[in-house]
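Notebook B, p. 112. Complex prediction, attempt 2.
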Amino acid sequence: MVCIRKATIDDLLAMQACNLFCLPENYQMKYYFYHILSWPQLLYVAEDYGGKIVGYVLAKMEEETTECHGHITSLAVLRTHRKLGLATKLMVAAQNAMEQVFGAEYVSLHVRKSNRAAFNLYTETLGYKIHDMEAKYYADGEDAYDMRKQLKGKPQPQQQHHHHHHHGGGCCSGEAKAE
Amino acid sequence: MASKFGMAGGIPERRVRPVWDAIDSRQFKNALKLSTALLSKYPNSSYALALKALILERMGKTEEALSVCINAKDLLYKNDAFLIDDLTLSTLQIVFQRLDHLDMATSCYEYACGKFSNNLELMMGLFNCYVREYSFVKQQQIAIKMYKIAGEERFLLWAVCSIQLQVLCGNGGEKLLQLAEGLLKKHIASHSLHEPEALSVYISLLEQQAKYGDATEILSGNLGSLIMIEVDKLRIQGRLLARAGDFNAAADIFQKVLKLCPDDWECFHHYLGCLLEDDCSLPSFANSSSVQVSTSTDCQHRHLTDDMFDCRISKASEFLENLMTEVGNDSIRGPGLAKLEIERRKLMYGRGNAEELMGDIILYFSRFGHLASFTADVEVFLQILPTDMKKQLLEKLVKIIDSSSAPSRNVLGQHITFFKIRELIGDTFSLPVKDLVGFAVQMTEMYCQNLPLSKDLDVQESMYGEELLSMTCNVLVQLFWRTKHVGYLLEAIMVLELGLTVRRYVWQYKILLLHLYSYWNALPLAYEWYKSLDVKNILLETVSHHIFPQMLTSSLLVDISDLLKGYLRFMDDHFRESADLTFLAYRHRNYSKVIEFVQFKERLQQSSQYLTAKIEGSILQLKRKAISIEEVEPVLESLNNGSDFLDISREIHSKRLTFNEDLKLRPWWTPSSDKNYLSGPYEDIPYNAREILDKAKQIEAKVISIEKRSLLPRMIYLSIKCASSSVKGNSGVNGFDSKDFSELKSLLELYAKSLGFSFLDAVELVVSVSHGQKSFEVFSSNLIDWMNFAVFLNAWNLNFHETNSSDRRTFPINWQVLCCLLERCISETINSTKPLLSSPGTDLSILIQLVTEPLSWLGLVIRSCVRSSLPSGKKKKKGGPPDQSNSQLCIAVKDSITSLFSMIEKVTKWLKEQIDKPVDADVDFLISSLHREENDDGPGKVVKVLETLVLSIDDLEVGERVNRAIRSWKPVDVVRKITTAQGTALTEFFAICELKMKVLQELKRQT
């Protein structure tokens, strides 16, 4: 029994602990803040019975390109809570938000070549396809698959004349509107 | 941002670019050359000057950078009109910020905004300055101005956010919320709202004012469509309805959410809470992110009659049945747990049946028993079962496992769950030793047998059955506690060491080990394992409690100093950078995150651990320098002579300290850093039922302890001064006056108060212990504090005759009384300190602290006297022989030096004896503690299983890596590591003492 909900800043304490126990990667706290302060709609945690954070997904919208797309930065589920479909739920929540809030056309991610479990999750359960391979992507020299999944996307929201944005890529700044 | 028309700060961009390129590639010397050239061409450009300042700052020439930057600022004010642009300002801002002069950056922007009113770009810069300074009121004012000029929604929201911050984090009254609401209403009437976050802010504003009805109405209206994810909207709706007291409607909404997310426990709790009108599980305010499942049984279904209760419960059951059929997905735990929860509620209401609950738990076990999350899932349900039924449950679970035909991994999982439940229920405390040993052997064997399951796993991945070794360790530690047989403790360590040989990433083992090693005075080993946890970032705040306290009272002064520095650097960096990040949220229009983020910063800033680290870090510096008064003085000076910390102690009672330590990962025997069951007699405590410590009491104790420690640096400073001026004819030389005298007195009073005594009573107690009229036991666990008090008291008293105090009492403390007290204290402590190896839990830290604190401070006081009485240097007297009182003092000081020397000599001698013990004898002693006679229940059985594993490893298919690791494992290596680590800690301590003796000998010669 688990509640998939949007992350709050306080969750970062537990999220980072989660990361330590799950992944060799360990991001700077600044990097988490950068995500949650920029795209809070895309960060989800899995809160288990009793209030314990047992997994999370960290994602962002790409600001560099004109094509509007999301990127999964990090996904983690505590080993005690594997095989419950939590990773799938977290991913789906983030993907939906990319699509519905930001109108993302596709979502990308990197996965270690050796990480079979994750690779299977992305290809078989979630429908990602290999887009490219990046040699020596990880700090320890391992290669990564660059994977993508097409989203339904949605028509670019109309720009209001007074909503200028200083960093281009109008889709990615939380100003998508329901009109 | 703005390099308009190819001009940067009034200079063509092509001329500026090379400077920036040089800066970016860190060629600062070159950059400086280029900037000098640029300045010669544009001597009146404040942008060019600001660039120079930036380069100087990067080169570490901060003073020069500041003066250049101030010149640039002055130039900016002088130059009229066209030269003020955002680029110049933002460059100045960067430099000022890096130099810790945010105020100057702000005044630049204020000046610019005054000069060019209505320039939005400059105003945004100014807003940003106020964000950095956390000036919420000014933020609000400038945002409103911008809103009035541009009419943009985001500026209004910036203002609203700033108002909310005034109420939540500042001292703004709640009335301000009305103002914010009014502003938003007016805007909506004319422009509507366009951003989902704006709507969230609006709703949170209304919620904060308890206007739930209004909020619900808005959410159901047109604006509601801004929230694009349906469940999100429903959740808010449900929450608002529940808070408004419309439980029926709220339950309906939560029912809808459950249909969409059948696994959502939080929603189920809200649903049930609304149905039963039970205040424990009603949704609370939006900002409190999580709902804790209440484990207490005092929830009130206040208004419900029995009939109503039954009716609502059956409604819930019915809904749940339908949901289960609809979902049908086996991997979803939600509906199963929901069923248990309904049974639990019935029991709590007195209308349930424990048998039924147990039946449901068993059902749930057969479905999910193999999962690692099972025990945590059912914990609250187990608690409500009567004791005899808990035992029945265990029996039934065994039967299920035995008849299980599941694949071996799942059976292993079920076994582990069973062991965990047994641990949780805690009936192991009443079992005979023999049974416990049996459990430990059984679990270790199971670990060994199942190693092949993990054959193909990557080294980074957790192996199957890892929990078995942690649980074995738990049992063995309990056996040690019960029997005091050191062999069990050794076995507990060996089990974990073997586990880490097999896979070195298991953080659970490392944490258990670091606590066991700390307990056994092998702190260097504990520290080594702690380091291998690679604790960084925010984990420094949540995880450091495992190692900080014992390191702070140890002889590893360099290591703890490094630890503290690392932690403080992280925290301070965060505080420095967090304001910049806040602006990121404003820019991305994530208003609710702005508030959360500022609150988070406050939470960290008020961390009790942060405060402790700052104070202890400074005391540690003093400890390390204490052999020389000349080296201590600069440290004190850097602490503003200790005054900074006095402010902390004054404010601490009004501050709301936060405790961010994650205590859940601590072992059962030490649920918090100030509690260790192993040091006390064996008693029946339920394993995992973490002690329900009196939180308020604990917090108060912590506050008092921080307050007490924060007085130390100032007391040391004043004592040194006091001692110096006690040398006749010397008062006033170091500026010591009656103000210092009375300040020290008042600090002594505070210190005594924190020990629970009045000043006079404290003096009396110290003196009577010194005379042997009372035993040291009266000081209980505050021995070090009391000895510190005595040292400072004597220093203060030295000056008593000097001062025209109206308080003419005399105090029976003097050098002799003090030294006698300390000598007795040292002797008694040494006599009660048992050999480290054969007596785990020996508290060596008391002796270490005695030497590094009171004895060190006494040394400083003595040195201060000696320095002032030496007829050398500047302090040379005008001539004539020293008068009588000075020669009396002189004799007393001499005696004290001799006494202090002999105290430390005594410690050194004891240490030498410990260190010189041959290691081999120690090793033999420990190994022999694992004597193994077949019919004996004593320790050794678990190690035997491990040894068998090593011998038979080639017969098991565990893969090359694990095979190699296990073959290399030897019990005797573990023992050697422990003795070596104890030796290292003792040697460090020995070195500290030796140095002190050397310096004292020198001092003896001088007097």
